Structures are given as C-alpha cells and as structure tokens.
Amino acid sequence: MSGAPRVLILGAAGQVGRELQRSFAGMGELVALDRAKANLADPEQLREVVRGVGPDVILNAAACTAVDRAEQEREPAFAVNAEAPRVLADEARRLGALLVHYSTDYVFDGSKAEPWVEGDATGPLNVYGASKLAGEQAIADAGGRYLIFRTSWVYGPKGKNFLLTMLRLGRERDRLRVVDDQFGAPTSSMEIADATRGTVEKALSGESGRWSGGWSGVYHMSCAGSTTWCGFARAIFERGADLLGGRRPEVEAIATAEYPTPATRPVHSVLSNEALYERFGVRLAGWEAALDGVLAALRTLEQADS
Fold first, then answer.
1. Within the chain, where are the H helices?
2. N or C of the chain: less Cβ packing under 10 Å?
3. Inter-residue contact 133 to 105 (CB < 8 Å)
4. Residue by residue, what is the 3-state secondary structure of 257-277?
C-alpha cells in the first residue's frame, strides 16, 4: 500500500470504537461512524456506506453484545453479529481492503482447563456466542484479507461494562455478591485498540514476526493472566478505592447457580495469545496492569469534568 491508508471505524460510539479512534489517530485518514450513520442491521445501507468511503482498512467494532437479551432476540443478534460481517467481508474483498473484526471467548464451551488456542473445537453455549461464531465463519468463507480477534470480558473507561457497573454499585452498596466460579481474562478496550494498531501496521507493512505465510485468520487477543468475576470486582475496589467516594464495599463470592441468567456462560474461557505474539510480535498487558491503566483514565476524566 502506498501512502497513508483510509481507515473506516464502525461502532465508533462503543467502548472499543472510541479507543480505536484514539489509537489510530495519525495513521491515516479516519472515518469513524456510529450506528446512526452505519447501521449493521441494514445490509444494503452498510454496503452503500463502505462503497462510499472506499477504505483501505475496515475496523468493525460494532456488535450486538447484550448476552442475555440475545437469548430472546436471536434474529437481531445474528443480523449484526453474523450477517453484517459477511457483508463487510464481501465489500472488503471487492475493494482489496483489510477487514478487522472482533469476536469472543464465548465461542467456546468452557470445558477445557487450559487456555484455549485458536484451533480448539468451538461449541458456544448461548445465542451470542453462536452469532459471533457465525460471523467468524462468514468472514472466512468470503476470503480476502482479514484479521479476526477473539477477545474476552471487555471493559473500558467509557460505555457500559462490568468495571463501571461495579464502581456505581460500590458507591451505593456496602455488600455485593459476585460469581466466583467463572474464569476468564478481563481485557480493556485500551489494550485491544493499541494491540490492533500494532498488528494492523505489521500486517500492512508485510512484517509478521517469524511467519512467512499468509496472515489472514483468527487470533486470540486478551490480556494476560486470569481471574473470576469476583476476583475482578475485588481488584477494582482495591485499586480504584479513591473512585468510590470513601466507601469500601465487601464482595461476597457466590456460585453461578446462585445467580441464574438467561444465557449460559462458559466456566473457563481463558484464551492463549501465543499465536498473536508469534506471528506479529504483539502482546497485551496483564489484566491487573491494564485495569490500572483504565482506572488512571477514569481519574483523568473525572478531573476534566470537575
């Protein structure tokens, strides 16, 4: 590719989309569109948008991520998470563009004790995971140049996520009950965005670590280490104590059975990120260090608002 690329960011108002705009600033011409300007539930409008922009890189950070609601709203979930990626892959192939798409650890059934690798058999336990897996398959079937990043337990300084929910509840309550038998890796939107830029730059420049073959495919992209939702909540309160207005809520560990939800979650969805490192030399921070980074960003936001 000669010259700076034109980068189309979809889902610009979401937590990953916001950070992609920060991380990709200066790389080329950015066109960042939210749902109002690029509705992934409308295939024809989506095609028109992509053709109108004519991007060299498409970063698809838009998704239907309401895991429990998807159990009752299967059709909208598949429209955004499966059909839209197929449309984007078709258009990217036609343009010769690179498509970057985000998937999830929920494509796995959680039955494996060791970290999941890209080649492990999938088996989603809920509609959300099934719709995201269908999106992966649609992109692969379309061909072209693509990077699918499976990530996990995504949160950030903006949007709707576990971190911000815990901080809100921590300011309101003295005691919280949080599931302690589901294991995963909390992964910040900031880390995802920065890792995405590093990977995209190497892919576009022809650098791909020790790998000499084609680089299109599925890669795991999550923070290092693992914890439970309960462990994550306790870390939030310990490391972000100054954001709780002087409160120190107690976190009680409970079993998944004590907190039933419409969608079944995998018990163990920790991902191995070795393929991403070996091929592109990109590695995300440990989940605790990443949490510190997001909490620092929240403090900056609070100071700016005061």
1. 15-23, 43-53, 67-70, 74-78, 84-95, 127-142, 162-172, 189-205, 229-239, 274-280, 287-305
2. C
3. no
4. HHCCCCCCCCCECCECCHHHH
Range(s) of the domain holding residue 18: 6-159+185-224+270-285
d(CA 278, CA 92): 26
What mean pLDDT is predicted for residues 47-54?
Answer: 95
Q: In this predicted structure, what is the pLDDT of residue 247?
A: 85
Q: Across residues 46-72, what is the average pLDDT?
A: 94
Q: How many residues does the chain have?
A: 306
- Confirm if 5 and 204 have CB atoms less than 8 A apart: yes
Angle ∠(133,135,140) on CA atoms, nearest 5: 95
Average pLDDT over residues 90-107: 96
pLDDT in tens, 175-229: 999 999 999 999 999 999 999 999 999 988 875 544 444 789 999 999 999 999 9
Q: What is the CATH number of the domain that holds 90?
A: 3.40.50.720
Residues with a catalytic annotation lie at 128
Q: Is 190 within a domain?
A: yes
Number of domains in the chain: 1
Sheet of strand 217-220, all strands in order from the earlier edge strand to the far edge: 29-33, 6-10, 57-60, 98-104, 145-151, 217-220
Residue 78 lies in a domain: yes
- The answer to whether position 97 is within a domain reads yes
Strand-pair category, 183-184 with 175-179: unpaired
Residue that has been written with the tokens 């790389």 in this structure: 27
pLDDT per residue as tens digits for the range 118-151? 999 999 999 999 999 999 999 999 988 999 999 9
Is 134 domain-assigned?
A: yes
